[in-house]
Write a structure and sequence with these properties.
heterodimer, A: 504 residues, mainly alpha, globular, B: 169 residues, 2 domains
Chain lengths: 504, 169
């Protein structure tokens, strides 16, 4: 208790709170720009924390982290462009909600869901860090491959109108992920001697191209409307803070389930927020009494995605604190920040530096409160973005996408890739292919391939995927998931056909 | 033509466009499957670098073949004759999209040559003036935004983040 109070006192001191406030604002703004990920924001923050006390520095970085997960929501809801990969599922319902004239409600639901997601994950972190971490590191490549198979089965419920085109899109994504050097032996593949393909297709460039460029292009389809000065989003610019808070709290099952999904996936090294939001969304859709309403602007969809991705912030800290294993790039930077201050990260961290660990728990909770306050105070200003006419907004956001894609690796060739992928994204959108399965394929492809090959390098016996209990469990869950999605898809098609026959 | 007739015609032309996309994807996928099969395997592992891509393209080829058969069965013969004119109408209605991609292509090609500030200024000014209503206020806003997001953003990245956007050759 003494250590807890010591850590809390350090986090709650005036200078730390001020730095955290700045960090929170910076995280929200950075992640709101398409292409600027939470990871980039944290990398830019790291050198600024060198001169600070260890706990102060890590608290600032945690506030950027928590703010960043929420910032991705802003462009997802208002522009239909996920600011970060962790906001992909947020576009499914927050964007239609904005287009239906409720941009304020869409943002507000997302912000509250993020807040509760972070708080729930912090509570889980405090209670369950050591046992969860031990479970997570016991998983071998067999379990990871089966987990990815399960994650890929989510594609079946993201396919939109056509199951066939959804699966084709997912396979295009997986095929795109195989371009460049292979992940095990580093052998070049499918680069055809071109420099632009030699390093592979970075999934963030694909994400920006597929979602952002194609979305921006589709905004200018109606020439007459854009030249008249049509606004990006028409509707009520009202955040409705408390009313929406009640709306989110009235969905406790969805909120807790999505947060737990976020924590569990965040605790698995290598998975993280980019998968958690999709899995949480998928689970919410399956559990819903009105699954057909998902994708049309339902509050449950926004709650699931945002609480799921924000909860990965706490989940990611579980293996870091309990075992010294960073689960994601962001956690690796947090670990580096601790090491810069001479703190050895490992299983003894909680014993040797209990005040620091408890301070991190407090900092997580404070950062989420700060994010909430910043959003409530400034969201009206963010919502003004929706009032900017399309003719001004579309070219400016295009430039932001280009800068974001370039700043990822400082490579000009990534820009050519961005243009090409953007064109492909627009063509696929025009041909009514769902884009989310494609992005999921690009994200999961390398993880699936690496673990499949690693598993068979360790032991050539294929049956291990079925005889290891956790692996088998994931495979059964994947199979059940596909069966459920195919059943509801066929049911929906039969209903549509019956309705068509009824209408004269 | 009735409203239903027009909708059916649009659906059929859309299906022909999709059929073409399946055919293109199939050709690419078959090519990449063959390319993957030529990647040598390693003696250190059961699966080589080509195994996973072959698996992906194999499944993709099967799916595309089934999609092509489905489309061919669904489309009436007379639909093909109308496709060219329907596509022309579709492209004409989306002329600004083509302008946008053309400008984006030129912008991305010019970036490494003339540098970020100049290329971005011209890109923003041209594209926004093309899209904007032809008023004096709009022209002033265009100029302001072009300066802020070309010179301003370049300064912000260089001075605050130490990230240098393309400076030109």
């Amino acid at each position: 208790m003494e250590m807890f109070l010591q850590g809390a006192a350090e986090v709650l001191s005036a200078p730390t709170l001020l730095y955290m406030l700045i960090g929170s604002i910076a995280g929200i703004i950075a992640a709101a720009i398409p292409g600027f990920t939470v990871t980039m924001a944290i990398v830019l923050t790291l050198p600024l924390t060198f001169a600070m006390e260890p706990l102060q520095g890590i608290s600032v970085m945690l506030s950027v982290y928590v703010g960043g997960y929420t910032g991705g929501l802003i462009s997802a809801a208002l522009l239909g462009i996920p600011g970060t990969p962790s906001a992909v599922a947020t576009t499914f319902d927050a964007f239609p909600m904005s287009r239906n004239g409720e941009p304020g409600r869409a943002l507000s639901i997302g912000v509250w869901a993020s807040f509760f997601g972070t708080i729930i994950s912090t509570l889980v972190l405090i209670v369950a860090a050591p046992p969860l971490a031990i479970f997570a590191v016991r998983l071998g490549p067999w379990e990871y491959f089966s987990l990815i198979v399960f994650a890929l089965s989510i594609v079946a419920s993201l396919v939109g109108n056509s199951l066939q085109r959804g699966l084709i899109a997912a396979l295009i994504g997986l095929a795109m992920s195989t371009v460049g050097t292979d992940p095990i032996l580093g052998r070049p593949r499918f680069d055809f001697g071109l420099e632009v393909l030699a390093a592979g297709l970075p999934f963030l460039v694909v994400l920006i191209g597929i979602f952002a460029i194609s979305q921006l292009a589709s905004e200018v389809e109606d020439a007459r409307a854009i030249q008249k000065g049509e606004k990006l989003v028409q509707g009520e610019i009202d955040f409705k803070t408390w009313q929406v808070m009640r709306e989110v709290v009235m969905r406790p099952v969805n909120l807790i389930r999505s947060s737990i999904v976020g924590v569990l996936i965040g605790a698995l090294p290598g998975a993280g927020g980019s998968i958690a939001n999709l899995v949480a969304y998928d689970q919410a859709k399956r559990a819903s009494k009105t699954p057909d309403e998902f994708g049309k602007g339902i509050a449950d969809g926004v709650v699931a995605s945002e609480s799921g991705n924000s909860a990965t912030a706490g989940g990611g800290l579980i293996p870091l604190i309990a075992l010294g294993i960073p689960g994601s790039a962001v956690d690796a930077i947090l670990m580096a920040s601790l090491m810069v201050h001479g703190i050895s990260v490992g299983p003894r961290l909680i014993m040797d530096n209990a005040d620091l660990v408890y301070g991190m728990f407090v900092a997580m909770a404070v950062a989420s409160c700060m994010m909430l306050v910043v959003c409530i105070v400034s969201m009206r200003a963010f919502l003004r973005v929706a009032e900017v006419p399309k003719w001004a907004m579309v070219p400016v956001v295009l430039v932001c996408c280009v800068v974001g894609a370039f700043a990822l690796n400082n490579r000009v060739t990534d820009l050519y890739l961005l243009g090409a992928v953007g064109l492909l994204g627009y063509a696929l959108r025009a041909l009514d292919y769902p884009l989310a399965p494609l992005v999921l394929g690009v994200i999961l492809g390398p993880i699936a391939e690496t673990n499949l090959r690693r598993a068979l390098m360790t032991d050539a016996d294929w049956t291990l995927f079925l005889t290891r209990p956790v692996s088998l469990l994931f495979l059964i869950a994947g199979l059940a998931s596909v069966a459920w999605a195919v059943r509801s898809h066929l049911k929906g098609r039969t209903q549509r056909q019956a309705q068509k026959e009824k209408t004269p | 033509m009735s409203h239903d007739g027009q909708a059916d015609r649009k659906t059929e032309s859309g299906e022909i466009a999709r059929l073409l996309s399946y055919a293109v994807l199939l050709a690419v996928s078959v090519g990449l499957f063959w390319e993957a099969s030529t990647i040598p395997t390693s003696r250190f592992e059961v699966l080589g670098a080509g195994a996973f891509p072959m698996l992906v393209h194999g499944v993709l080829i099967l799916l595309l073949l089934s999609a092509i058969i489905g489309s061919l069965r669904q489309l009436p013969r007379h639909a093909y004759a109308r496709f060219a004119s329907d596509f022309g109408d579709w492209a004409k209605a989306r002329r600004l999209v083509f302008v946008l991609f053309l400008c984006l292509g030129l912008y991305l090609s010019a970036l490494p040559i003339v540098g970020y500030p100049a290329a971005t200024f011209v890109f923003l000014a041209v594209l926004q003036l093309w899209f904007a209503p032809k008023t004096k206020t709009a022209a002033i806003i265009v100029l302001f935004l072009a300066i802020v997001f070309s010179l301003g953003l370049n300064w912000l990245f260089a001075e605050v983040f130490n990230v240098f956007l393309p400076r030109g050759s």
